[in-house]
Amino acid sequence: MSVLVYVEHAEGNFKKSALEIVSYSKAIADQLKTNLIALAIGNVSDENLTALGKYGAEKVLNVSDKKLDNFVNEAYSFVIADTAKQEAANVIVLSNTFSGKGLAPRLAVKLKADFVSGAIELPDIQNEKFVVKKTTFSGKAFAYVELLSSIKLITLTINSYQLIESAVSSKIVKISPEFRDSDFRATVKQVVRSNDKTPLPEAELVVSGGRGLKGPENWHLIEDLADALGAATACSKPVSDADWRPHEEHVGQTGISISPNLYIAIGISGAIQHLAGVSSSKTIVVINKDPEAPFFKAADYGIVGDAFEVVPKLIESIKEFKAQK
Amino acid sequence: MKVLVCVSNVPDTTTKVTFTNDNMEFNTAGVQFIINPYDEIALARAIELTEGGKGTVTIVNVGKADTEPTIRKALAIGADDAVRIDATPSDAYFVSYNIAEYARDKNFDLILTGRESIDYNGAQVAAMVGEFLDIPSFSIIKKVEFDGSIATVDREVEGGKEIINVSTPFVAGCAEGVAAARIPNMRGIMSARTKRLEVIAALESGQSTRIIKYEVPPQRSTVKIIPADEVGKLVELLHSEAKVI
């Protein structure tokens, strides 16, 4: 018996979301009184691998093979499933990232594991039951899902578990599993990085703009505020539909769901579809000139005022605050 | 090209979500059901790839008879025929297993789904169908184009995208950018009535998760309104009270 966590990295470095799921998996291993094993695929330095011990991984497995330099969904899921079998893992945890969404469903089929995607809390494990809370109806509700099979699979929503240090001494083991040729039918021709900014689903602070901004030429207000805060930028559906901003920035029921620590909505009225995608943000600030905008009812802090006057003042104020710190 | 599009019947995006039966069931009273918006994108792309005699589009849905208006709408938008696998879609594993078993001997070149359904938000069906059929899957794509039987797919990855070459058959979950959703025209609506909609029995998947209860998110406490000429106060509150900056 063991808990296996698959840890993603970007060019050999673990991101915060990766350390979050190691902390999360360690808490599950503790509840089940078993060991936590971490698996990283690709080139990662021993120093970085060892650092996973700081969050509770007793054993860190690493597969490094030229064939796996690019993300190959089928081959990666084969390696994770193979490792899960070798280590007799009965709980397997991945991040609910784009790659996690590609891998985990294939693992569920390979391992005949009951699977919950997008968990937002630790599982409730008692009286032989294993129940996981997840977001449903695109943020309008939560569901408690019971997993019945002997092997259980969870993907954890980004930003939903804190980093907890529980230093253990960790042992690095290099493994070289077999591959199947048929898992390399897709060939990655090119990897395109959008920019250096934090990807929206992982961002802790998000500044978002709506139709109230009146046009793409005014987006510097959103960008300048985001820069001052060190935040990612987002937008409402009408804005991406009008091509003022790319689709990747659209948050809401039919866009991306996010759960940052701070969400600042500027010139967004707060339609139910938009609220669905952002309602799990920890703190919501709404800036809108219409005091009747429904978004104020779902906000923690509000400013009733014209974005073109309020936002530049807010940028100044944040810069002052940062300078004092 | 033979394309299979998996369509889910979901509550309209404006639905206020409530539950009945001691919070164990979604309350469908007064709820309008629609084609899952991402599945509409998948359907639009399938039609683009096949129209003008270049192929056929089949719709598959796992649902009871009440999903038929949604299936008919997909036919009205332009699919050629449809299959309903007659069962309540209990979880993604069950749905994927049944879609895969249906598709197994039909030689589809391409199977498209939406990136996720807007009700359960599992984002599991594309990759599970791929695994059941042992063919490549791309869970979230922003583009799919063909040159003969070789496709170029843009797959979303953290902080960017991968441009991938793959030969058919494969499965892909469509997101915004793949195509613009279409609305049915009058001719489509008329012809949809007579298009073939086959109903087949579901198979046991031998495995299932179970939702034991639902919960609606707690209301936020009353909003604190800060005067527009005192934005400094907001910064102070975000720091000392909300502790987010």
Written account of the structure:
The complex is a heterodimer of chains A (325) and B (245). Chain A is built from eight helices and 18 strands. By secondary structure, chain A is an alpha/beta fold. Chain A has two domains: 2-184, Rossmann fold, CATH 3.40.50.620; 200-324, TPP-binding domain (Rossmann fold, 3-Layer(aba) Sandwich). In chain A, strands 7-11-6-1-4-5-12 form a seven-stranded parallel sheet, with helices on both faces. In chain A, a hairpin with a 2-residue loop joins β8 (124-126) and β9. In chain A, α3 packs across α4 and α5 (220-229) packs parallel to α8 (307-324). Chain A is elongated. The model of chain A has no long low-confidence stretch (mean pLDDT 94). Chain B has six helices and 15 strands. At the A-B interface, α3, α4, β7, β9 and β10 of A face α3, α4, β9, β10 and β11 of B.
Notable characteristics:
heterodimer; A: 325 residues; alpha/beta; Rossmann fold; seven-stranded parallel sheet; five-stranded parallel sheet; 28% strand; B: 245 residues; nine-stranded mixed sheet; two-stranded antiparallel ribbon; 6 helices; 15 strands; 32% strand; globular
Describe what is shown at a glance.
The complex is a heterodimer of chains A (325) and B (245). By secondary structure, chain A is α/β, with parallel strands linked by helices.
The side-by-side strand order for the widest beta sheet of chain B comes to 11-10-9-12-8-1-6-7-13
CATH fold description of chain B: Rossmann fold
Q: Could you give the distance between the termini of chain B?
A: 53 Å
Number of domains of chain B: 1
Structure class of chain A: alpha/beta
Total discrete domains of chain A: 2
Morphology call of chain B? globular
Helices, strands, pairings?
The complex is a heterodimer of chains A (325) and B (245).
Chain A: E1 2-6, E2 9-10, E3 13-14, H1 16-31, E4 35-41, H2 46-51, E5 59-63, H3 73-86, E6 89-95, H4 98-111, E7 114-119, E8 124-126, E9 129-136, E10 141-146, E11 152-156, E12 171-174, E13 187-193, E14 205-209, H5 220-229, E15 232-235, H6 237-241, E16 262-266, H7 272-278, E17 283-288, E18 301-304, H8 307-324
Parallel strand pairs in A: 1-4, 1-6, 4-5, 5-12, 6-11, 7-11, 14-15, 14-16, 16-17, 17-18
Antiparallel strand pairs in A: 2-3, 8-9, 9-10
Helix pairs in contact in A: 3-4, 5-8
Chain B: E1 2-6, E2 9-11, E3 19-20, E4 25-26, E5 33-35, H1 37-50, E6 56-63, H2 68-77, E7 81-86, H3 92-103, E8 110-114, H4 125-133, E9 137-147, E10 150-157, E11 160-167, E12 170-174, H5 186-192, E13 197-201, E14 210-215, E15 224-225, H6 231-240
Parallel strand pairs in B: 1-6, 1-8, 6-7, 7-13, 8-12, 9-12
Antiparallel strand pairs in B: 2-5, 3-4, 9-10, 10-11
